[in-house]
Design goal:
By secondary structure, the chain is mainly β. It has 3 domains: about 1-60, SH3 type barrels (Roll); about 65-125, Nucleic acid-binding proteins (OB fold (Dihydrolipoamide Acetyltransferase, E2P)); about 130-180, OB fold (Dihydrolipoamide Acetyltransferase, E2P) (Beta Barrel), CATH 2.40.50. It contains 1 helix and 16 strands. The protein is elongated, with a radius of gyration of 21 Å.
Length: about 180
C-alpha cells in the first residue's frame, strides 16, 4: 500500500468512495508539530478540486485506471452510445462525463476513455478533428472573422473565406479553427 509521502502529481487515488487524481502534493514542515502532506486532489467525476492534508505515514489506496479505445455511434436520450473497439461491446456514457466534448462528437469519432471497473471517468478526444461547416453568420463591417456552426453543433470563429459546406480542421482542446481542409 502507498503512503501519503509517496504521492506524486498524476497518481489516481481511491478516497472516501471516490476517485481522485493528485494535482499537487507538498510536504509541509511546521516549527512545532509534525510534518504533513498537503495535496490538491481533482475528483474525476465532478472535476471539483479539493485540498486535503495527510499524515506522512498515512496509507492511501492507489488505483490504476484502464484506458480503452471507443468509437462514437450516436446519442441515445441524455446518454451517448459508443463501441468499445477492443471487445466490440457497446458502452453508454452519460452527458455529464462528456461535458463540452459533446459538441465535437460525430459518428465514427474515436476517443480514449478512462475506466475504473465499469465506471468511466473521462473521455479524451483527438486533438484535431475535421468537421463540416453547416452555417456561417454574416460578419459585421471590418470584422476579421465570423461565427460558424459545425455539423456537430459546435460554434467556432472562422476566417471570412470559410463558407457553408467547407470542411475545416478544429483544435478540440481549445475549440478553435486551425485550417480549411
Amino acid at each position: 500500500m502507498t503512503t501519503a509521502n509517496q504521492m506524486t502529481p498524476g497518481m489516481t487515488l481511491h478516497l472516501d468512495g471516490k476517485i481522485f487524481r493528485v494535482e499537487s502534493s507538498v510536504k509541509v514542515t511546521v516549527a512545532k508539530g509534525t510534518p504533513f502532506i498537503k495535496a490538491k486532489l481533482r475528483n474525476l467525476l465532478t472535476e471539483e478540486i479539493i485540498e486535503r492534508n495527510f499524515k506522512l505515514d498515512q496509507p492511501v489506496q492507489e488505483v490504476s485506471l484502464l484506458e480503452r479505445a471507443l468509437e462514437f455511434l450516436y446519442p441515445e436520450g441524455k446518454e451517448y452510445l459508443f463501441l468499445d473497439i477492443g471487445n466490440l461491446e457497446t458502452v453508454l456514457i452519460p452527458s455529464t462525463v462528456l461535458g463540452d466534448k459533446i459538441h465535437y462528437l460525430k459518428e465514427g469519432t474515436q476517443v480514449k476513455a478512462m475506466f475504473y471497473g465499469e465506471t468511466i471517468f473521462s473521455i479524451e478526444l483527438p486533438q484535431f478533428l475535421e468537421i463540416m461547416v453547416v452555417k456561417t453568420e454574416t460578419p459585421g463591417a471590418a470584422a476579421p472573422a465570423k461565427k460558424a456552426v459545425l455539423e456537430t453543433g459546435a460554434k467556432v470563429e472562422v476566417p471570412l473565406f470559410v463558407e457553408s459546406g467547407d470542411v475545416i480542421k478544429v483544435d478540440t482542446q481549445i475549440g478553435e479553427y486551425v485550417q480549411r481542409v
